[in-house]
Every structure is written in structure tokens, then in C-alpha cells.
Amino acid sequence: MAFSLPPLPYDTSALAGSGMCQETLELHHGKHHQAYVTALNGLVESKGLAGKSLEQIVAEAGKAGAEGLPVLNQAGQHWNHMLFWQVMKPNGGGESLPGKIGAKINEDFGGLAQFKEQFKQAGVTQFGSGWAWLVMDQSGKLKVTKTPNGSNPVATGEGTPILGVDVWEHSYYLDFRNVRPGYLDNFLNKLVNWEKVEELMNAGGMKSGQSA
Ligand code: MN3
Fold first, then answer.
1. CA–CA dist 31, 171 (Å, integer)
2. What letters, b where the CB count within 10 A reaches 16 and e where it falls short, cover 54-80?
3. 91: in domain
4. How far, in Å, from the CA of 28 to the mean position of ligand 1?
5. What does the pLDDT read at residue 1?
6. How far is the CA of 107 from the centre of ligand 1 (A)?
7. Domains in the chain: how many in total?
8. Which residues of the chain have pLDDT under 70?
9. Measuring CA to CA, which residue among 129, 119, 110 is closest to residue 184?
10. Residue at 93 is within a domain
11. What is the Å distance from ligand 1's center to 98 Cα?
12. Residue 70, domain extent
């Protein structure tokens, strides 16, 4: 089985009114994400990945350190973008969260505003390319973290991601130019699909269903 690019869960123009234009999604999904999938498929044979699930490949590449980086760059980015598309929706964000995730955010961060500030800061302070994450740790507590480049909390063992935002420049340059904090505010206030985040929390994280 080869890895493949799943279709977006909405039209490429669907998020334009919420701060992510059609051209951003066409390039980011159709070109950037596709390139990671193509490159990962090109590594299956030489890196002995056949038969392994995407999650297994990411975790093993993370544990392998520098030696695992060529695989982690592509496999991590495939996984990261699969999650990213799912946790956005038109007219998302807002202040009113579904009950269970809302209560958990209040319990573990002291409130939605505190969570948003921590998450935004993680994204702002990730130097260069990378991701900011909301993860469930091994005890079930929600935490914010960040990772560089194609890495993620599956690879670092920091927990199970249930929300992630891409802070590579290709994710925001057409819509927000150099202003990453503005992109992150917009993500939190207009794009997050909290129903999906709650679903991922209940399910114990995203299962890609893909394998080499
Ligand atoms: Mn990206």
C-alpha cells in the first residue's frame, strides 16, 4: 500500500471567509502536502518501511534521532497535515466550546483565554518552521507544546496531539504576510473545529489509517 493525499474535508474556497484563502489551500494541500506524500513513498523501499503504519513510522523515526530525520521530515509532515486539515472548519474558533473539551480546557489551563495565550505563544516562539500543539499527556492532562520542522509529539513522545497549527511560512504568507501572531489569532478565533478536537480527545488521537 502506498501513502496517499486525503481530500480536504471542505472545498479549497471554504475557509476564505475565515482568513485562509483558496490559493493558500490549493498550494498548501495540493502542492506542499502532496510533495511530502510523494517523497515518503519514495523512501519506503530504501528505508525498510514496508508494512508499517504511518504512526509507527513517525514514532520510530523520532526515536532514531538524527538518523531518522530524513524519514521523519516526510512522514511527520504527512501526519501533521492530515491532522491540520481536520481541525479547521469555516467559521470555527469562537468562545463557546463543546461541553467536554470546554470543561477540560478550563480544568487544565484555567480557561479558554489562558489556553489561547499559551498556544499562540508556542506558535510565535517556534523559531523558524514547525508546529504548535495541544496534546494529551500519558496521564490524560492537556498540555501545549511545539516542535520544529516535520516533527510532532508522536515522534517526541510528548503525548497525543488533538490540535495542531502549521507555522511554516507557506501556511500564512499569502494571507498574513510576515505576521505570524495575526495568523495564530485568526486560527484560534475563526478556524479551529472544536467539535473535531473533542472527537479526537474522546478517540485518543488521530488514526491515519495509512501504511507503507
Ligand atoms: Mn505545511
1. 12
2. bbebbbbbbeeeeebbebbbbbbbbbb
3. yes
4. 6
5. 76
6. 31
7. 1
8. none
9. 119
10. yes
11. 27
12. 20-207
